[in-house]
Amino acid sequence: MERRTIGAATLEVGAVGLGCMPMSWAYSGSRQRGEESLRTLHRALDLGVSLLDTADMYGPFTNELLMGRVLRERRPEAFVSTKVGLLAGEQHIVANGRPGYVRRACDASLRRLQTDVIDLYQLHRADPEVPVEETWGAMAELVRAGKVRALGLCALGARGGRRTGGRLHDGTIRQLERVQQVFPVSAVEAELSVWSAEALDALLPWCAARGVGFLAAMPLGNGFLTGTLTPGEGFEPDDLRARHPRFTAEMMAANQPVVAGLRRVARRHGEEVTPAQVALAWVLAQGRQVVPVPGAKQERWVRENAGAPGLRLTPGDLAELAGLPGARGSWD
User: Of these residues, 27, 58, 101, 121, which one is catalytic?
Assistant: First the structure.
């Protein structure tokens, strides 16, 4: 697989990563199967999908434990990204950015992942009760201690960003400017896809100007851009899409022109090319520092996603995709 680098530290990864959250959390609990997830992780590494993205809160903790079973055997082949800063309860999620907690959480993640070092340690969310510089300083200490290789920051969610007014990622950029004064940021993880392109306005340019890598979260639109979801089919109660305004039956039907556009482009490149591969190729075309991290829990989806770097979209393809109607249904 094509390789890309993340940040000034030139951390090398496969051009497409693997988001591991669906294996343990937030998506259709009845379809989460440990052995199948293990096979998926092994297949990803076989295909050169080296960036494995998780967080301590996924499960919570079970996603890191699952990944650790694979890393125990294949650590040199993997680039491990995990996150700190959020605690998941039964009905709520809270931030914790206290330095002491960050140090303990890192040690716990290392044990669960069965590794001596985390390649990319990301701040999941800043704690409003703790200056972000203090949290980031504790994370920097982990780099100096040899427990972490590089640091990253996850962008504020859409709901939080849009309530502040202004551009979606203004709050994230302010945080980045602050923590960059403490220790270099190697990567930013934020949503970027054909139907959620807001990061192109300011956040991605900020990263490009400073040599900061960009991990594109949800590049397949939580599965919608694959063209495999049926409007009105519904989701299990524990599936995050059951409460997402873009996934009501009405909005899924209204957004079908986006999938139709992906299908048109796919057909021009061959019968075997899928809408998902076109969607990922679009993300890859946004810059050499961009690495899409689609979530998957089945081998077939990992194989499909791994084929995206081989798809070269033409200027005409990119223009057609840029002209697709905006997605309907948002948090506003």
Answer: 58
